[in-house]
Structure formats: structure tokens, C-alpha cells
């Protein structure tokens, strides 16, 4: 149950090559210059590893891969944006972080139907600014929809789930 | 008459705090030892119990807590008889436990409930009588045998019923012939003559004889004779100075309690007591008191027992502990926080530095600072963790009471309670654990008759096992009760449309259906309905803590609930190893040996490579391959590890030092990653993973 | 006027000389070590102005040994001066405390009418 969105909210804009994404500023915990995370075994390709963020071991995800784009090497300006929802914290690797933008709630349109069934639950909507299309991210859904993260397991409230089939 | 609280002007509040704290400790010990009393007789235990109660009594007397003193005194009497060799009974232990509860209530400042307390005292008295009447020896009387055991009754007192009139010399020959163990009604009364000679400062010290005498009068029949001869003339009289003295006569009661009552004012109100007659140190048969009532009606159910079987080495050793006040701790944490900030500031300065600072020195200093702050952070976090026993300690009592109430015979076993968890986690798992235990007792363990009919022992067993695995702690609660019927649950779920027809669930998934709110509450079948209620809350709480809940069951044999919780902080003795160009940690407790890889010791068993270890072979695992890291140098070492009785031979590149590592949880942020049980931050700031040896050894090795 | 030589005679029904005007002494609240200094002043005043004191003590809420000692000294002084004092009423707190201390006789309370000394639930 989401609280009603305020009329205007601030967003951090990040770029993945030519595409611009907006992350609600309230979900942004920290931004750091890109540092290669320590790789984890047995994880999906979009999980690049973990970083030590002030004593907590935090997973780091390649946002490009997470949203379904193809892999590309990181440029000089790459940064890791640490976002959080509840107790879940994740680092998102992006090509650049640009400015902070105010977007009116009314300006965010629902995303179009994706014909090929790609999971777009993490997209809150599409906005326009200075003639650019900006994809507004739903950080909550982004985290909870990622099976590699703790947040996804926490949504199961007693109902059986595939993860349980694993032996301990 | 309600007991009035004595105004104590001269006693330090700090002393009272210490008394409260120490008595609380004493009461905790009391409960634990009382529960163990029904196990095979341990004479030392009874001695310890006696001493604990004696200490509590003394302290309570010192602070004028008269009701506590009386209760403790009665408990002491019962325990004293057990010291002499009598066998404690179940009902006596229950009564003693309840008396302990009453003491706790009174200590906490709760009001005295005279009816309840009188009933408790009567039951304690009865317990003492029962124990004594089994023919064991009463504690030695104070040297007197026939003679002075006669009662001398004051002129205002009432003779005990059935006593012949005293002879002229005050001794009653009939009394002399009364055997040692008598019903309380026939016990002779004690007469105490108490000289009270207060100092002049008595009033100014806040002592009020009215209150003192009122308390005395609750022990027996009191009459006071005042001496006003020293009171000066009205004009000269300083009204705050005490010029009065008293001679008191108290019929009934114990001299020890009288002394205890006056103990704390000993310096400003000295007394002398002369006691005649009465049985030493046991019950108080003053005619003012109710005759001992019947004990609590015996349960119709068979005898119940809740014994705690200790896992070796964990329970009896009194752990050296300190109490840490949470606010001081928070202050320390804040300090550490500041240090961390300072350190990062310095790092920043260093990075942007232009000139004046010697880069080498500042670099070294910063490294030191970094190490320092990291260990401070770890030490501070460490202070927050407490042993899980602080939560588990209440369970023996819980099981005892609940089992007794339901007429079931249940033994509780607890193992691994030395493991430490963060305080916040402990606070939250208490209730879920209680719920799970109650479930096992209510719905798991059958009544003794049913168990017997099913070919089981009449005594049900509940086990709580706690084990640390890397960055997780596993808590299992298992019972050998009636178990769950998976087929029936699946059928009902299908009926309700909770599962698609034809969709097959794993056993674990089937059992978890009972956690779905509403699934079992509407069910008529009791073994399902009870189990499920409230389970959704338990599951949610555990999940919020970052853990999960699993359930295993076998119809007719029992049920096990397995909780997994991430340890936000744990310390592990680790063996550092290197492979794939990185450092990894193996928990030292799993390490068997490390040696050069001997190619001749490698053979194939079907598809699997195995390595000869002593007379056995262990599956060989190339860790680079297993952990999906590139092999940079040929692996030259073999590390043999063991867990759950199975061994594995791990191919690694190098062996590093052994050190304590602080385990950082992975499962707090990540869904379960195979083969890893946490991570740690090394001295150089890099992250090293801790290998899940338990998991590695449990799985088959595929090639 | 008569001289009471024995404290036990206090409170006994005595003849009140027609010429002496009874003086009412009202005691109320606590009479304890905390208040005895003040009470002594009042009693001293009473001694100075009256020869036949009538004590109303139904409103006394508490009496401790210090208070009892003072009242006793007061009553002895009344007798020594040849005056009289009697209790018109006494609260049960006062009576019970006096009894607990064994001082009913020394405060002349043992002759009080029964209804004043009985407990009210």
C-alpha cells in the first residue's frame, strides 16, 4: 500500500548510455565513484558482487543488466548509487549520475505495454523533461522483484515459494 | 491489618538498589535450582537452595520487608527439612516456586496480598510437616529435649488446644512426651519477652515504634508495657527526643524473625529477647493463624515432571558476565561513530592534500586510524550481544507449568545456549520461541495415555537446539509428539483452492500451508487448528529479522520447526586461505588438516575425484572451480575439512594466518548464496567470504 | 479543683467546677515527630488559658510514639497544675496507636465511651 505521492518530488537522474532514469531522491542513500565489488559465486550475472558500505556488506547490481540491456564496460564516470527500501540496501552501477530534477507527479505517465513480456514492474512511469524521455524507477519494486536480494524473500508471508526447495 | 511500610530515614537508597539487584539474581537462581530439584537427588543443590533463600531472608529483614522475610523463612524451613534427607515432592516444589514468585512481586514493590500470602505460608508449613512426618529427622532442637520444649503461656495468651494445664513450675509433663514430628496444632507456643530500649534519637532517625509493634503483632499476640518514668516535665520536654522504653510480650512467632525485624535498627533501638518454649525454626502455630489448609488439590493427571537435561559444558558453569547499561553503550557507539567520521575526513584531506603533510607518515597514520576505528566498531558492537540463554532460561519454567496444567509429562532439553546474538534480535525472538514451544506442548505432545497406546514412552520430549553456522544461527524446536499429516493438509489445501489441482508441492511447502492465516483456524481437526494459529505472526517476525522458518514433520513421530536467523554480528575463529587470487575464510572448528597436494593420493570413484585422508577417502573439491573464480596458479595445497561427520578435501593455493574474524551477514541483504556463510572485512579493507563448510560437506559432489 | 496524683485518674469522670469554663482543644491531622514541636506550642497555650480542657480528637489521622509521649507529658502537666482534661472524642487512629504502644492508660483513653474506640470497617 503506497502512500499518496506528493505533488512534486525530487529525483536523481542517472544515465545508462542514451537512456535516462530517475530515482526518487529519498531512496538514495549514497553515491560513490565506481569501485569494483568483490564478486560472488553462484549469483545471476546482474549481481556484480558486494561492497563494504560503512561496515555493512551490500550487494552491487549492474543496473543495465537489471533492466534488460546488454552488458557494456564501465566508463570513467561510472558511479555506484546506493539505494534502499526498508532494510534492504543495494548499490546500482550506472554510467553517470547527472542532476537532481523536480518532477511533478502528474507529469509521470504509465509505462507502455511491453510486447515481449519483459518484466517492467520496477518502472513507475515515464516523464518528459526538456524533450527527453525519463524512465522513473520504482525502487521498492526494483528491489523486491530481484530474486537475488533479501527483499524478494521477505515478500513471501508463509506461502510456499520455489526458494524453499533448496536444501540447507 | 495491612502491613505498613516502615519509613526508613537512615538507609541509603543506593543500598536498597543493590539489595534489589542481588535479590533478583537470587530469585532467578532459586527458580532454576527449584526446577532441577525433582531430578535425581543432588544434595549439594538443596544446600545451595537453602543458602539462596537464607540470603534473601536476611536481606529482606535488613530492609524491613517483613512479608518477604516471613515467606522466605517458611521456605527456608521446608528446605531445611530436605537438607536433612527428606525427598522433595512435586507439589512442594510447585509451592516453593509460587513462593518465589510472591517474593519477586513483593520485591518489586507490589502490594502485600495477605490472603494469598497466608495461604502460601500455610502450604509451605504443610510441606514442611509432610516432609518431616515421613520419619526423617527434624533439624536438631537447640539442645533442649523434653524439658524446655514445654510452652510457657503468657497470661494474655491462649493455650494451644489439647495442651494440659501447665504445672506449677511451668513445665507440662505431657508436653515433654510429645514426639518430635507432631501436627502443628499440638506444637507448643513460644513466648518472647522483648526489652526495647531505644536511644534518644529514635524518633529523629525516622523510626516509629507504632509501626514496629504493628509488624510484630502480625507474628503473634503482642502486648506492650510502656515505661514512661524517664519522660521529663512538659516544659522541659523536647518532643522529638525519645524517653520511652517498652517491655513486649509476644506469644507465637519465631525469635529469628523478631531479631530480623529489629536488626536494621539495632544501633538506635537495641533489644534483648528471651524466648521460652516453642519448636525451633519451623512453623508458627499461633492460634491467630489459620490451621494449615489442604495443599493445592492434586491434579487428576499422573505425575508430571519438567527436567532440564543439560548439554555438556553449557549450562552449569556460571558464566562470567558483566552488565552493560544500554545508555553507556549507546554513548560508546556514538563515540565510535564520530571516530569513523573523523577518519573518513582525514582520508579525504589526504587524497586532496597539496604539500605540507608528509605523505608517507600521514598514510601510515591513516592506516592505523583505519584499523583502530574498525576494531573499536567491532568491540562496541560486540558488547550488544548476549547469550541466547537469556531468552531460553525462561523455558524450563514455562514447560513445567504448562505441562502440569495440561496433565502431560514432558522433558525439555536445551543445547547450544552459549551462542550470542545481538540484543535487539534476542528481544524479538523471545515471543516467537514461546509460541512455538507452547504449540509443541499444546498440540504436539500427546497425553501420557495416548503416548503409551501408541507405543511411545509416557514422557514426551521437546528439544531446543541452537547452532551457529557462519553468519547464521539455526534454532530448532523439535518434539516427539503426534506429528502432522502432510497428505491431509495437501488435500484440504486443494479443497480450499489454495493450490492448483495437479500442482505438486514439496513436503516443506505443504507444511508451510498451515502458516497461511485462516487455513487452519476454520479447520475442525485439532492437530491442525492449534498449530497454525499465530504461526503467521511467528513467520513474519522471523522474516523481519532476516531469517526464515522451515517445518519438518513425520506423522506419529513428531515435528521440528527450524528457524534460521542471520547474525548481524558474530565472531568466528577463522583460517585464512587463498585461491583464485583472493582471500577466503574457513571456520577453524571445521579444519582437520592442511598438507601439500599429493597427486598419488587422488583417485576416481566413478565420476568423482576423491583424496586419501588417513584410512579414508574424502571427495576432492577444486575451490576455484566451485567458487567460479579463475585459477591463477596451480593449486598446491589440500585443506581437509569436516562437518556433520563428513569430510571434504579442498584444493587451495595458499594458507594464511589464523585470526578472529568478525562475521558480517550476507543474508541480511542477499537471498541465500550457496557455499557462503557470511563475509568479513580484512585489515586492508577488502571483503573476504566465509565458506559454508557445513553446506559443502552436506551436499553430494557433482562432477 | 483537685490534684490528680496518679495519671491513671485522668479521664475518669470528674467533677467540673462550675466556675471553670471548659476550653475546647481540637486536635486534628497527624501528631507525629514531624509536627510535635508545633503541637507542643498549642498545648502550652492551652495550659496557660484553661483549667478544664475538653479534647476533640476525632480528626487526628495519625499518632506516633513521639506524639503519644507529648500528649502524655501534657496530661501529666495538666494534672500537676490541678487542672482537668477529658477526651470528648478520639479517632481510631489515635486510639489504636496508643493501644499498640501500651499507652492507653497513660493517655487516659481507656475510659472513653466504647463507640469511639471501636473499629469502623
Give a quick precis of the structure.
The complex is a heterotrimer of chains A (168), B (703) and C (121). With 168 residues, chain A is mainly beta.
How would you portray this structure in words?
The complex is a heterotrimer of chains A (168), B (703) and C (121). Chain A has 168 residues and is mainly β. Chain A has one domain: OB fold (Dihydrolipoamide Acetyltransferase, E2P) (Beta Barrel). Helix content of chain A is 9%, strand content 42%. In chain A, the strands form two sheets. A five-stranded mixed β-sheet of chain A has the order 8-1-2-10-9. In chain A, a hairpin with a 2-residue loop joins β4 and β5. The C terminus of chain A is likely disordered. Chain B has 703 residues and is an alpha+beta fold. Chain B has five domains: 131 residues, Four Helix Bundle (Hemerythrin (Met), subunit A), CATH 1.20.120.160; 110 residues, Alpha-Beta Plaits; 55 residues; 180 residues, 2-Layer Sandwich (Heat Shock Protein 90); 129 residues, CheA-289, Domain 4 (OB fold (Dihydrolipoamide Acetyltransferase, E2P)). Helices cover 37% and strands 21% of the residues of chain B. In chain B, strands 5-7-9-10-12-11 form a six-stranded mixed β-sheet. In chain B, α3 packs antiparallel against α4 and α9 packs antiparallel against α10. Chain B is extended. Chain C has four helices and three strands, in the order βαβαβαα. Helix content of chain C is 36%, strand content 23%. In chain C, α1 packs parallel to α2. Chain C has a three-stranded parallel β-sheet. Chain C is an alpha/beta fold and 121 residues long. Classes of the chains: A mainly beta (168), B alpha+beta (703), C alpha/beta (121). Chains in contact: A-B, B-C. Chains B and C meet through α7 and β2 of B and α1 and α2 of C.
Amino acid at each position: 500500500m503506497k502512500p499518496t505521492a506528493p505533488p512534486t518530488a525530487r529525483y536523481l537522474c542517472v544515465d545508462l548510455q542514451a537512456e535516462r532514469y530517475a530515482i526518487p531522491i529519498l531512496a538514495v542513500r549514497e553515491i560513490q565513484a565506481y569501485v569494483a565489488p568483490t564478486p560472488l559465486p553462484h549469483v545471476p550475472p546482474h549481481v556484480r558482487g558486494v561492497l563494504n558500505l560503512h561496515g555493512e556488506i551490500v550487494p552491487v547490481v549492474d543496473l543495465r543488466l537489471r533492466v534488460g540491456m546488454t552488458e557494456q564496460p564501465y566508463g570513467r564516470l561510472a558511479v555506484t548509487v546506493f539505494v534502499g527500501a526498508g532494510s534492504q540496501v543495494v548499490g546500482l552501477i550506472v554510467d553517470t549520475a547527472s542532476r537532481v530534477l523536480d518532477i511533478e507527479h502528474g507529469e509521470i505517465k504509465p509505462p507502455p505495454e511491453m510486447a515481449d513480456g519483459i518484466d517492467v514492474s520496477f518502472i513507475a512511469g515515464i516523464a518528459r523533461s526538456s524533450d527527453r524521455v525519463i524512465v522513473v524507477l520504482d525502487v521498492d519494486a526494483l528491489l523486491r522483484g530481484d530474486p537475488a536480494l533479501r527483499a524478494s524473500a521477505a515478500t513471501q508471508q508463509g506461502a510456499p515459494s520455489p526458494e524453499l526447495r533448496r536444501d540447507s | 491489618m495491612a502491613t505498613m511500610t516502615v519509613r526508613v530515614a537512615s538507609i541509603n537508597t543506593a543500598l536498597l538498589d543493590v539489595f534489589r539487584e542481588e535479590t533478583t539474581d537470587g530469585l532467578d537462581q532459586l527458580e532454576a535450582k527449584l526446577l532441577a530439584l525433582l531430578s535425581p537427588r543432588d544434595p549439594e543443590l538443596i544446600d545451595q537452595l537453602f543458602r539462596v533463600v537464607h540470603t534473601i531472608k536476611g536481606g529482606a529483614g535488613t530492609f524491613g520487608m517483613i512479608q518477604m522475610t516471613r515467606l522466605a523463612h517458611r521456605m527456608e524451613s521446608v528446605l531445611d527439612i530436605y537438607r536433612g534427607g527428606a525427598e522433595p515432592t512435586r507439589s512442594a516444589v510447585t509451592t516453593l516456586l509460587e513462593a518465589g514468585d510472591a517474593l519477586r512481586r513483593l520485591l518489586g514493590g507490589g502490594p502485600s496480598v495477605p490472603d494469598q500470602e497466608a495461604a502460601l505460608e500455610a502450604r509451605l508449613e504443610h510441606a514442611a510437616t509432610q516432609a518431616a512426618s515421613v520419619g526423617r529427622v527434624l533439624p536438631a532442637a537447640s539442645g533442649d529435649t523434653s524439658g524446655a520444649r514445654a510452652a510457657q503461656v503468657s497470661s494474655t495468651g491462649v493455650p494451644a488446644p489439647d495442651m494440659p494445664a501447665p504445672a506449677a513450675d511451668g513445665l507440662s509433663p505431657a508436653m515433654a512426651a510429645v514426639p518430635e514430628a507432631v501436627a502443628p496444632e499440638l506444637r507448643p507456643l513460644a513466648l518472647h519477652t522483648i526489652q526495647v530500649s531505644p536511644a534518644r534519637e529514635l524518633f529523629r532517625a525516622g523510626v516509629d515504634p507504632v509501626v514496629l509493634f504493628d509488624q510484630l503483632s502480625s507474628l503473634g499476640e503482642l502486648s506492650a508495657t510502656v515505661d514512661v518514668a524517664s519522660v521529663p516535665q512538659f516544659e522541659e520536654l523536647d518532643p522529638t527526643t525519645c524517653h520511652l522504653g517498652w517491655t513486649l510480650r509476644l506469644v507465637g512467632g519465631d525469635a529469628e524473625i523478631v531479631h530480623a525485624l529489629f536488626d536494621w535498627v539495632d544501633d538506635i533501638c537495641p533489644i534483648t529477647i528471651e524466648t521460652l518454649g516453642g519448636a525451633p525454626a519451623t512453623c508458627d502455630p499461633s492460634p491467630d493463624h489459620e490451621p494449615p489448609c489442604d495443599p493445592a488439590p492434586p491434579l487428576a493427571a499422573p505425575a508430571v515432571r519438567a527436567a532440564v537435561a543439560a548439554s555438556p559444558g553449557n549450562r552449569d558453569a556460571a558464566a562470567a558476565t558483566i552488565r552493560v547499561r544500554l545508555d553507556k553503550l549507546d554513548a560508546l557507539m556514538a563515540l565510535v561513530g564520530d571516530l569513523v567520521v573523523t577518519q573518513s575526513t582525514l582520508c579525504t584531506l589526504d587524497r586532496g592534500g597539496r604539500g605540507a603533510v608528509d605523505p608517507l607518515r600521514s598514510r601510515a597514520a591513516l592506516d592505523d586510524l583505519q584499523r583502530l576505528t574498525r576494531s573499536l566498531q567491532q568491540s562496541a558492537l560486540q558488547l550488544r550481544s548476549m547469550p541466547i540463554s537469556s531468552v531460553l532460561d525462561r523455558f524450563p519454567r514455562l514447560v513445567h507449568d504448562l505441562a502440569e496444567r495440561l496433565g502431560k509429562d514432558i522433558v525439555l532439553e536445551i543445547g547450544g545456549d552459549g551462542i550470542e546474538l545481538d540484543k535487539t534480535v534476542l528481544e524479538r525472538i523471545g515471543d516467537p520461541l514461546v509460541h512455538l514451544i507452547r504449540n509443541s506442548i499444546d498440540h504436539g505432545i500427546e497425553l501420557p495415555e495416548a503416548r503409551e497406546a501408541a507405543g511411545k514412552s509416557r514422557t514426551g520430549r521437546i528439544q531446543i537446539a541452537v547452532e551457529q553456522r557462519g553468519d547464521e544461527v539455526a534454532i530448532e524446536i523439535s518434539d516427539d509428539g503426534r506429528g502432522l499429516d502432510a497428505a491431509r493438509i495437501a488435500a484440504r489445501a486443494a479443497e480450499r483452492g489454495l493450490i492448483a489441482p495437479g500442482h505438486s508441492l514439496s513436503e516443506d511447502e505443504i507444511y508451510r500451508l498451515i502458516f497461511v492465516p485462516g487455513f487452519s483456524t476454520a479447520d475442525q481437526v485439532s492437530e491442525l487448528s492449534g498449530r497454525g494459529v499465530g504461526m503467521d505472526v511467528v513467520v513474519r517476525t522471523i522474516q523481519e529479522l532476516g531469517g526464515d522458518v522451515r517445518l519438518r514433520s513425520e506423522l506419529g513421530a513428531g515435528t521440528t520447526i527450524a528457524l534460521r536467523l542471520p547474525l548481524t554480528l558474530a565472531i568466528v575463529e577463522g583460517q585464512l586461505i587463498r585461491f583464485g587470487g583472493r582471500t577466503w575464510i574457513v571456520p577453524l572448528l571445521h579444519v582437520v588438516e592442511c598438507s601439500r597436494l599429493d597427486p598419488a593420493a587422488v583417485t576416481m570413484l566413478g565420476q568423482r575425484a576423491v583424496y586419501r585422508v588417513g584410512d579414508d577417502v574424502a571427495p576432492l573439491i577444486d575451490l576455484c572451480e566451485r567458487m567460479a573464480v579463475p585459477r591463477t596458479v596451480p593449486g598446491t595445497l589440500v585443506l581437509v575439512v569436516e562437518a556433520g561427520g563428513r569430510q571434504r578435501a579442498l584444493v587451495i593455493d595458499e594458507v594464511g594466518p589464523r585470526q578472529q574474524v568478525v562475521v558480517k551477514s550476507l543474508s541480511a541483504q542477499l537471498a541465500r548464496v550457496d557455499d557462503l556463510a557470511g563475509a568479513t572485512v580484512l585489515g586492508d579493507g577488502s571483503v573476504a567470504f566465509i565458506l559454508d563448510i557445513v553446506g559443502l560437506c552436506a551436499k553430494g559432489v557433482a562432477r | 479543683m483537685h490534684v490528680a496524683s496518679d495519671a491513671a485518674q485522668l479521664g475518669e469522670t470528674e467533677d467540673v467546677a462550675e466556675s471553670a469554663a471548659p476550653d475546647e482543644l481540637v486536635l486534628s491531622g497527624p501528631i507525629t515527630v514531624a509536627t510535635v514541636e508545633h503541637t507542643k506550642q498549642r498545648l502550652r497555650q492551652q495550659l496557660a488559658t484553661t483549667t478544664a480542657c475538653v479534647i476533640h480528637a476525632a480528626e487526628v489521622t495519625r499518632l506516633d510514639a513521639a506524639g503519644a509521649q507529648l500528649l502524655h507529658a501534657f496530661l501529666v502537666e495538666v494534672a500537676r497544675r490541678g487542672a482537668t482534661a477529658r477526651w470528648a472524642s478520639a479517632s481510631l487512629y489515635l486510639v489504636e496507636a496508643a493501644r499498640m504502644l501500651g499507652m492507653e492508660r497513660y493517655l487516659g483513653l481507656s475510659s472513653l465511651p466504647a463507640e469511639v474506640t471501636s473499629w469502623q470497617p
